[in-house]
Amino acid sequence: MRLTFWGAARQVTGSMHLLELDNDFKVLIDCGHDLERERKPLTDENGLYQGIFPFEPSQINAVVLTHAHIDHSGFLPNLVREGFEGVIYCTDATYDLTNLLLHDAASLNQRKLKKIAKSKKFNPVHKEQKYAKRELFLAPHVHEALGHFRTLLFRQRKKIGDGIYITLIPTGHLLGAANALIEVEENDQTKKLCFSGDLGRYNYPLLSDPEPTPEVDYLICESTYGNRYHQSEGSPEEIVLDVIKRACVDKPGRLLIPAFSVGRTQALLFTLNKLCSEGKLPPIKIYTDSPLAKASTQVYQKHLSLLNKEAQEFHKSNQSLFDFENLIYLETSKQSKAISNYNHPYMVVSSSGMIQGGRIEYHIKQNIQNSLATVLLIGYSAEGTLGNDLLNGRKYIVADRHELAVNATIERTDIFSGHGDLNDLIKFVKWQSPEKLKKLFLVHGESSSMDDFKETLGKEGYSQVEIPEKGQSFEL
């Protein structure tokens, strides 16, 4: 049995791990969009296209999808386009959210293609441009990919091939998200592997805590927070209320919150709803500016049984998790742009969370020079994104070829981060015995985070830690 790391290796995005059995059965664990790929040439030094995948998709028998986020699911339509004919396994909630996210990505790709076609710089024979267009899947490709999905219940042990079984274990992080337990029977032995996907945190709004995983031979662990802890102290309600008061009550300002439409926005809206139900929310207009976020809230409502006890009891008492007084969903782009002309204090929640595309870019452009505006970043922002630049104290941003001074107040909180921090990661690893665990692989993190996490684990008695390079294989 061989395990090859084709994504999220010494980087955060693009999760993609290939498990090949001795009987030639091949399983791909996640098939995510790689942000780093967008910044690198698609051709080698000889001008040859390197291909979307470093393997033959038609030879993959199955995919196990841990959760819906695009950095784990975003290359599935391309996998099917390139010849994959197998089955994609995930939970029912993951299917519903992946459906929304992939169609949203396809819409963005359609706009990119139109922009490319209109660009004076577009050269149809330019190899890089030609291959970049080839990788932009559209709605029909999403529809075809969704036809390969088969959903499983949490904790349901499923045989997916000769001598191979999978079990999806709840891990928090996002509705439907799972750690993937894989059992392989070959050569009169049973070997167990666990792929963490993305680990959730404890006491997170809406979601249940991660469940323990059984002991395995090989553990593949994400390391996003491998060298840091969550810093925000207090409850989500206390933190959000404090920012709203300072941004919109103490002064007639605007509060802009970039938030991922799936997961982060729901946690924030639930927190605001709780404040409203307790009579603590100031009477300001709160705009949710993301059609995808509105659709995602309906998926959360559909899967109430997967939410934590607090959320289920709140729903019983209030009949809704996300709708409350003064909350307004903006449907059209015209409505989105119109609120910039409003004079009253307001709050807007819009995607994307890293300020990399989406309607939030317009709101930032219109308000970044306004000293009465506040931008509250509530999640991780990767290097190279505007969100990361603002967190690092950037003084100017470029919009429509103009430099705009950053006069708005920039704040951050990690209270809504869906990732477990160092304490949570260590707890996850400690479900495994250091004496019995044969190998521990660290993925899905920045290099410094992985290196520090490896050192920490060594002090905890885990000496068998590997940080694989992209494309590196291991015989198990």
Describe this entry's structure for a reader.
The protein has helices spanning 70-73, 76-81, 92-118, 127-134, 139-146, 236-249, 264-277, 291-302, 309-318, 333-338, 360-367, 386-391, 422-429, 447-459, and strands spanning 2-7, 16-20, 26-29, 62-64, 87-91, 149-152, 158-161, 164-170, 178-186, 189-195, 218-222, 254-258, 285-289, 327-329, 346-350, 373-377, 396-399, 402-405, 409-412, 439-443, 465-466, 473-475. Strand 2 (16-20) and strand 3 (26-29) form a beta hairpin. The model has no long low-confidence stretch (mean pLDDT 93). The chain has 2 domains: 2-228 and 418-475, Ribonuclease Z/Hydroxyacylglutathione hydrolase-like (Metallo-beta-lactamase, Chain A, 4-Layer Sandwich), CATH 3.60.15; 236-412, Rossmann fold. Helix 3 (92-118) runs antiparallel to helix 5, helix 3 runs antiparallel to helix 8 (291-302) and helix 6 crosses helix 7. 30% of the residues lie in helices and 22% in strands. It is built from 14 helices and 22 strands.
